[in-house]
């Protein structure tokens, strides 16, 4: 027997959340490229590369895990199972916080 179809509003909300993670990943990737390629005068190159790599790594993690999260939530809605707590927001918050610290170091190092 097929899983019951959940209320379409919940399905669409789950899709919007997936797309929000993808948008966030694209934004992080764009920021990583910008730090490395468009700000050559902003501090030492190794720090810029570290910040860019961190942002690109966060983007890869989000893009790589967002589909699985969407699928798991969809399956939970269809079977009536509990929805697990996501870990991606915590990792993203820590990664962005570290990037902010690197950015502050770059800003002060540029003077």
TrEMBL record:
Domain DUF202, residue spans: 9-75
Keyword Transmembrane tagged: yes
Membrane topology: Multi-pass membrane protein
Coarse class of the protein's main subcellular location: membrane
Transmembrane segments: 20-40, 47-67, 87-110
InterPro entries, alphabetized: DUF202, IM_YidH-like
Keyword match Membrane: yes
Subcellular location: Cell membrane
Alphabetic keyword roster: Cell membrane, Membrane, Transmembrane, Transmembrane helix
Coiled-coil region: none
Record's protein name: DUF202 domain-containing protein
Organism: Nocardioides bizhenqiangii
